[in-house]
Amino acid sequence: MHTRLTISALVILNLALFCSGCGNSEPMEMLDAQSLLDRYEQDRRRHDPNSFSEIDLGQFFVSLHQDPATYQVRFRIFGVIPDNQMSQFQDMIEPCTQRVRDAVISAVQRSELDQLRDPSLGWLKAELLDAINQSLQMRILRDIVFTEFSFERN
Question: Which terminal Cβ of the chain has fewer Cβ within 10 Å, N or C?
């Protein structure tokens, strides 16, 4: 009985710390019902050219060392952003461009070879989307679009 109470208390404490952000940085935007509905509607229309724009996030060249081989990953990515948040995104990304680049490179280096061989690159897109939004401390980026993607063994 004492163990159950201790576990319950730890779960509640962890949940409270997680929800409060428990750090010096601002927590990601709070999610209320209207925010969730707005986000659902935006995600549903994320490729609508009338509501969203693509912004160039840069070209990347990443080396992966998997014994005994080395692989080279090259790509250019674009971020899909709601038109009404474009100026806010540009203001946010300027001071942390290097942090975003580092997050992208780290996500690629954490990838398994099979994930990089996937034609849809679904796992990598999800990882990059999460990494970039965390770097910006706000879920403003809605999707990632790859161009010029190559994955080669040296």
Answer: N
